[in-house]
Amino acid sequence: MFRRLAWSLPVLIVAGSLAVSVYDPLGLRTRMADVSFDLIQQFEPRPAGHPEAIYIDIDAQTAERVGAWPWPRPRLAQLIEAVHGAGASVVILDETLETPDPTSPGQVLALWPPFPADADVGAVTDALRALPDHDMALAMSLRRGPTVLSITPGKGEAHKPRNTGWALTAVGGDPYAHLPAFTEWTGNLSALDRAAASIGVHLPSQARTDMVRHLPLFANLGGDLIPASALEALRLKEGASAYEMRLRTAPTKYDITNLGGISSIAVAGKTIPTLQDGSFPLYFRMEREGASVPAWRFLEDGANALDLSGRIAVIGVSKNGIDKFHTTPIGPLPSGAIITEALDQIITGTMLTRPDWGQGAEMLLIGGGSLLILLIVLGSRRYPWPILFTLLLTGGAAYGTWYAFTDQMWILNPVQPIVTLLAVYIVSAMLNRLRIDAETRFIENQFTHRLPKSKLNKLIAQPRRIPHKGTGVEVTSMVGGLRGFNIIADRYLADPEAYADILNRFFTPATKLVHERGGMIERYMGETVHAVWNTPFPVTDHVARACDAALRMTEQLDALNDFLLEDASRLNMSYVPLSVSIGIDSGEAIAGNLGADHNFDYGISGEPVTFANYLQRHARHYGPAIIVGEGAQRILGDRYALLEVDLIATPRHPNGSRAFALLGDSIVRASPKFRALQEAHQALFEAYRHQRWAEARAVIAQARKLNGAIETLYDLYEQRIAHFEANPPGLAWNGVWYAGRI
User: Fold this and answer.
1) Residues with Cβ < 8 Å from 434, sequence gap 6 or more?
2) CA atoms within 13 A on the CB side of 246
3) What value does the CA radius of gyration of the chain take, rounded to a whole number of Å?
């Protein structure tokens, strides 16, 4: 379950992130892109240099020296003329003058209180009306040099803006589908509009807390496309008369990374890259020394205040404090200062671009990086590689974005990929940890008493060694049990602790022998122990290891019998020594989690297991302690003293499978006593399988006289001979003893 969740939940996260990349619901992608955009500008602002555009600031100091804002229009005209006189190629007035000057002679009467009815004020009013109109004075100043007036989109009473003689060519699409559209805007007095060289839009009306990151270069004002004041100033400076707007090809259903929109705007030989809505990405300077000048200097010193030759000047107001400031990545700035930043970027060629492949690269990082993290997380357990890889990948994305911004001036969005990759890692790592803990608990529950500590830890680190389903594997199975235990068991039924103590005195050394030789305890059942070799870990020469463990098990039984002798004397009871019966066989078996879906149990099932169990149960009929099946004998070859004792037929093996008594190791096999016994058994089975019953009896009689004779086995065969003499097996009989289904 945890493995499925570890795949499905991260896949859902990635799918959601890719959907955000394409559709940008609730502006999530844009917000994350803005985070990286702001951080980079704060840590790596644009280097300060010789400003190509100057901001003339009507600031608090100017208001103290010259007079509070708003000024009479002649004073503003004086400032504009002084700036032109200082050599400015174009002046932008970053204030909208939508109402007449209330200090103008024609308007001032409306501000005075009513005169007494009998007062003679005709001469006064006539004199005031004869004075020059302030707005007309400003209009005359506007005509003395190229000046751009501003329109504020987003509020006010809309009226049709004046076209100032420029042309626009759109290549590749319809700009109306992408440019910001406004139904309300604030313009200037018509007399001022006619006097100015041009008009343009400045920053749209917005909340003070809205971050300004881009400057719209064109706006749709009620169906009329109007350029930004900065763009118009640049056009006037260079003497150009036309704009060219290029748009990206409309996206297709096969290209989800192509968002369409405006790619660039060209004017006066400069191509300005834009975002899809035609806005220009701003790259701010932190140090603005020399880029801003207080307006009072031009009012007091005139044209000598500063040399503005060839530069564009922007006149704006910051006197009214926070109401005139906009939030930017580097802090609050008045709108005029923001326009000078844009102009300086364009003129110096320091322009940020959003590459066409940026969206696809970010989506590829999200998809490909998440897949790699998933594979590494799910392929590891308690190693630090997944978190190191995730940190390397996210760190690389952050550094790559930083390098692309500072070296290539590319705008990329690493925040969304980084957030997605971290989310994928956290979710997959948590689920993988739950999966690992569940696997560890299962392994500990299943194998704590089956394997030695070193093998258990190795299995916890390599849980795939335990197949979730059955798998075929060659194993050696050994079943060992106490022979004659039922005789003494009745003595201890009233004392369960003593009963268990006797079994534990047998199981403890037996388990140690199995573990020391690379085997696994499969289970304890009654007075028998079931062990298996070559699973879950492969073991070289596993048959020999099982045989060696069995031989040592018969030797260690002496300690248990010594205890029983002492206990029998204490209880004044007869002493009944115990021996062991051990069955061993090798072959293909099924290993895996066997049992109910909710209660798996690791186990081994197959013919070598059942045949070893059969040999253990019938070992007492043969006599020797250890009986080995033919599967194990074929692998052992001539390395151990194996003496054939039977040919056992089952429904699966109707022709029989041989069984051998394990009497010792290679030293025993090389002894003359064993060779004599082996020759006697060969003669016995030769006569027995050819139904020469008298000859077989004679061989048995001779074998009983040999050193190491197996009396129980010979008794068994004398009984079988008597049975077959009374019930002849037939000519096709090959000497098998039918055991039935085992």
Assistant:
1) 2
2) 10
3) 50
d(CA 323, CA 321): 6
Cα–Cα distance, 503 to 527 (Å, whole number):
7
pLDDT of residue 116: 62
Amino acid sitting at position 601:
D
**Which pLDDT score, from 0 to 100, does residue 462 have?**
80
Distance, CA of 401 to CA of 414 (rounded, Å) = 6
3-state DSSP assignment of residue 374: helix
**Residue 740: Cβ-neighbour burial (10 angstroms; 0-12, 13-18, 19+):** exposed
- Cα separation, 404 vs 541, in Å, equals 61
Q: Which two three-digit tokens encode residue 3? A: 């493995």
Residue 193 CA to residue 81 CA, distance in Å, equals 17
Identify the CA nearest to 719 among candidates 622, 651, 625: 622
> Which of 38, 92, 30 minimizes the C-alpha distance to 277?
30
Say how many CA atoms lie within 13 Å of 202 toward its Cβ: 28
Pairing verdict, β 185-186 and 147-153: antiparallel
| DSSP-derived 3-state class of residue 307 | coil
Strands 167-171 and 242-248: parallel
Q: Which residues of the chain have pLDDT under 70?
A: 1-6, 106-131, 206-209, 250-259, 320-324, 382, 595-600
Cα–Cα distance measured from residue 83 to residue 298, given in angstroms and rounded to the nearest whole number: 7
Q: At residue 421, what are phi and psi to the nearest 5 degrees?
A: -65, -40
CB 56 within 8 A of CB 316: yes
CA dihedral 727, 730, 735, 740 (to 10 degrees): -70
Element (H, E) at 496: helix 496-516
| Distance (Å, whole) CA 552 – CA 539 | 19
Burial of 355 (0-12, 13-18, 19+ CB in 10 A): middle
Of 179, 181, 173, nearest to 258 by C-alpha is 173
Comparing CA positions, the residue from 187, 186, 134, 131 lying closest to residue 155 is: 186
Please check whether residue 113 is in contact with residue 355, taking contact to mean a CB–CB distance below 8 angstroms: no
d(CA 66, CA 299): 8
245 exposure class (CB count in 10 Å sphere: 0-12, 13-18, 19+): buried
DSSP state of 579: E
* 493-497-498 Cα angle (round to 5): 70
% helix, strand, coil for the chain, step of 5: 45, 20, 30
DSSP 131: S
CB 91 within 8 A of CB 148: yes
Task: Kindly tell me the burial class for residue 534, based on how many C-beta atoms sit within 10 Å of its own C-beta (0-12, 13-18, 19 or more).
Answer: buried
Task: Name the one residue in this structure whose structure tokens are 């003689």.
Answer: 165
Q: Is-contact 51 108, C-beta < 8 A?
A: no
Helix axis angle for 2-23 and 358-378, nearest 10°, is: 170
CB 10 within 8 A of CB 424: yes
Strand partners, 520: 532
Report which secondary-structure segment, H or E, holds 523: strand 520-525
On whether the CB atoms of residues 531 and 521 are closer than 8 A, the answer is yes
Handedness of CA 613, 614, 618, 624 (dihedral sign): negative
Tokens coding 309: 């030759």
Per the document, the length of the chain is 742
Token digits for 403? 């390098």
